[in-house]
Amino acid sequence: MKKNIIYNESNELTMKKMQSNCIDLIITSPPYNIIRSEAKDRGYDLYKDGMTNNEYIKWTLRIFKDFDRILKKDNVVLYNMSYGTENPTLMSLVISDIIRESNFTLADILIWKKKNASPNNMSSNKMTRIVEYIYVFCRKDEFDTFNCNKKIVSHRKTGQANYENVFNFINAKNNDGSTDINKATFSSELVRKLTKIYAKPNSIIYDPFIGTGSTAAACLIDGHNYIGSEISKAQCEYAEKRIKPLKSQLNLF
């Protein structure tokens, strides 16, 4: 499969074309299935949240089954999820069923503190959320062996290595600029900080919900390769336009 391409199709179609064990790292933020009362504005130009909780969980488990096939040994899935006032329990239900029903388990939870919280919560009793979560999933039999770039800083007398502290708290921008076609993107700054921790040099990174291309931009800046899936033609065109100068500099046409 060609690298450094965004495929205008569902991730299920893209992953069917992939060979087994071909991806070094998966970074993504799926739709959160937040059903807002203002049904005409759910954050995307094409996709509309609206599954039942059970439908959403089954859909997620199908995606993780494909992840298990395409992800190389000892690598991880970095899954950005949050919750909404309208459906605050779904995130926890999804994480629980990924652990119970898939070949993956939860290895770590990273906290992403955004630069600002927008929109502010208008509820009288619920907090304004300025953090989101990056769930680090590894295969259950790779819990002790999955790749991480923590450096050895010293050794004990027994020979045991002491590793640097890498804190599970990341400050990064909300996004690379809000657009009308996708108001739920993360920033390339966040992706770059994540790949610094979990990606080996020249990795092939897959984003199954690549949206407006933040993962692709981050990969090109730091010398990685990307593959993306996105059902929205408008978002694919937007992403290709924004990363065209980066690809030109690297002679990737």
CATH superfamily: Vaccinia Virus protein VP39
Within the CATH hierarchy, at the fold level, what is the topology?
A: Rossmann fold
| Classification by helices and strands | alpha/beta
Residue share in β-strands: 15-25%
Sketch the topology as an H/E string, one letter per element: EHEHEHEEEEEHEHEH
Strand tally: 10
Overall pLDDT level = 91
- Going across the biggest sheet, name each strand in turn: 1-10-9-2-3-5-4-8
Largest sheet: 8 strands, mixed
Distance between the termini: 16 Å
Gross CATH architecture:
3-Layer(aba) Sandwich
How large is the radius of gyration? Answer: 18 Å
Helix content: 25-40%
Q: What is the name of the CATH class?
A: Alpha Beta
Task: State the main characteristics.
253 residues; globular; eight-stranded mixed sheet; two-stranded antiparallel sheet; 6 helices; alpha/beta; 29% helix
Plain-language structure description:
- 29% of the residues lie in helices and 20% in strands.
- By secondary structure, the protein is an alpha/beta fold.
- It has one domain: Rossmann fold.
- The strands form 2 sheets. The chain has an 8-stranded mixed sheet with strand order 1-10-9-2-3-5-4-8. Strands 6-7 form a two-stranded antiparallel ribbon.
- Helix 1 (11-17) runs parallel beside helix 2 (53-70).
- It is globular, with a radius of gyration of 18 Å.
- The relative contact order is 0.20.
